[in-house]
Design brief:
8-stranded mixed beta sheet; alpha/beta; 339 residues; 6-stranded parallel beta sheet; disordered C terminus; 9 helices
């Protein structure tokens, strides 16, 4: 009798395990996943011009991997990005990825609120906006910038002051923001930067420094912007280090230093193209490149996870690469400080 009871128990246990395995196989073979396949995401990005092959290859790979429909919309201005964003709440779209052109997050406020009210998930890459307006941010965050900035300052003999600058817009309608930092006791600035990175650096600067002054340059074309930088590098507020967060601003700063030659004592730490010859020539002390391909890949995956009901972090620092003259033979070093 006892052996019969054990045989029955083993039989029931085997049937139970078989049922569990069948249910599991059904769920992961498409029983529940079919509800979430074919999701339609719109990627609103700056116009890439002829150099958009990297973006198209990423989009194609993500579509194949996750069975998604990814619609890429590239625009040359923030105004055109906003016009599309106004239409999206009225369309059948499952999620939006935004790569903002403008550094001023208020430019997108009404459009992002409309997306939020319609229940459309939003992931922002490259330039951040306020947390209530998006579900997540993926990009080279201020922690990476703070790390390379602190490293660069430690390598300088004179480091009493530095400037961090960012820029947005096109020729004839540019906006450049410059934030001045000095050593010493902190004081309150009258103005607040529009750019989120500059705000975060002002709130948490490198140790021993404080945000002392802020300058906003609006409506400047490239030539005028270059003249402003030259006046800055040769004037009484000339910094020991200039850190440019924008490649076009970096190009203008490098051009000014090239023309000034030995009269320019400003060190340059710049975002730009990793093939820039200015580093090897000594114009730049450090070259920083962001990783938009990583940001967009993570951003699309986050949108998919949000639509499937999964948790995603409020922000993710996708990292940067830093190359200095000492590392030219060693290649790039990846900096990735997760929030």
């Amino acid at each position: 009798m006892e052996q019969t009871g054990w045989r029955r128990l083993r039989l029931l246990t085997g049937l139970f395990l078989a049922a569990v395995l069948m249910l599991t196989a059904w769920r992961f073979s498409g029983g529940t996943e079919d509800v979430h396949t074919g999701m339609h995401f719109v990627l609103v990005v700056p116009e890439q011009g002829s150099g958009q092959e990297w973006l198209l290859s990423i989009v194609e790979a993500l579509e194949d991997s996750y069975d998604l429909q990814l619609e890429v919309q590239g625009f040359p201005s923030a105004a055109e990005q906003k016009r599309l964003l106004r239409l999206l709440p009225e369309t059948e779209v499952d999620g939006v990825l935004l790569w903002p052109i403008s550094v001023n997050q208020d430019d997108y406020k009404a459009e992002l609120q409309a997306l939020q009210e319609s229940g459309v998930p939003l992931v922002v890459v490259d330039r951040d906006v306020q947390e209530p307006l998006r579900d997540s941010f993926v990009g080279s965050g201020y922690k990476s910038d703070l790390l390379v900035l602190s490293q660069s300052l430690r390598s300088l003999r004179s480091r009493e002051s530095f400037i961090v600058g960012n820029r947005s817009g096109g020729d004839g309608g540019q906006v450049a923001e410059l934030l001045f930092f000095r050593q010493g006791s902190a004081e309150t600035m009258d103005a607040t930067p529009q750019d989120m990175k500059l705000r975060q650096l002002a709130a948490s600067p490198p140790e021993g420094y404080w945000a002392a002054d802020y300058l906003l340059l609006e409506g400047k074309n490239t030539l005028q912007l270059k003249q402003q930088i030259e006046d800055l590098f040769t004037g009484p507020q000339a910094p020991d280090l200039f850190f440019s967060l924008d490649p076009m601003l970096s190009t203008a700063a490098a051009s000014v230093k090239r023309e000034l030659g030995g009269d320019c004592g400003v060190h340059l730490l710049c975002y730009g193209d990793r093939s820039s010859p200015d580093l090897e020539s000594g114009l730049l002390d450090g070259l920083v490149t962001s990783l938009p391909e990583v940001s967009i890949t993570i951003g699309v995956r986050y949108l998919r996870d949000i639509c499937r009901g999964f948790w995603v972090p409020d922000s993710m620092d996708s990292g940067i690469t830093l190359l200095t003259t000492e590392k030219l033979e060693k290649g790039f070093s990846l900096v990735n400080e997760n929030d």
